[in-house]
Amino acid sequence: xxxxxxxxxxxxxxxxxxxxxxxxxxxxxxxxxxxxxxxxxxxxxxxxxxxxxxxxxxxxxxxxxxxxxxxxxxxxxxxxxxxxxxxxxxxxxxxxxxxxxxxxxxxxxxxxxxxxxxxxxxxxxxxxxxxxxxxxxxxxxxxxxxxxxxxxxxxxxxxxxxxxxxxxxxxxxxxxxxxxxxxxxxxxxxxxxxx
Length: 195
Hints:
This protein is an alpha+beta fold.
């Protein structure tokens, strides 16, 4: 006589399930710090991109309008009505410069830097002026927004975070070239390296 075995149902035992969960927890604990650093590096990159795009737009508007424009960092949430340029601002604004008494300064566009990178710091000049040829120009305050003052020197913005290991720079040359670079890399060995 043959005895029938009880059919085993397919699935995991409790021990197999617990071992799998423990291994998953260990892998997550090992990968979490590097994942957080990666997220912070992405925030720094996003803020740098926004800053670079704003500077390029200011230069383009100076060429297009054949007028001096000013790119300003600001903490104002409505720079079209009230604008005060400040270093390490949370937003950016582009305005034309009033050079003659019969012309008016015009608000061009603004952008946000803080919505993505709430703990990202920007170090650099509060404002940069472009002439009608798209080059940097000195303007001590004639027709500029409150707090703005431009020098004709090349501008360097450093974008960093306390929890990031990859700060970035946005450089504006005297000729008006705007580029983002990584200070950890050399220009001689990498196209995105800093000079």
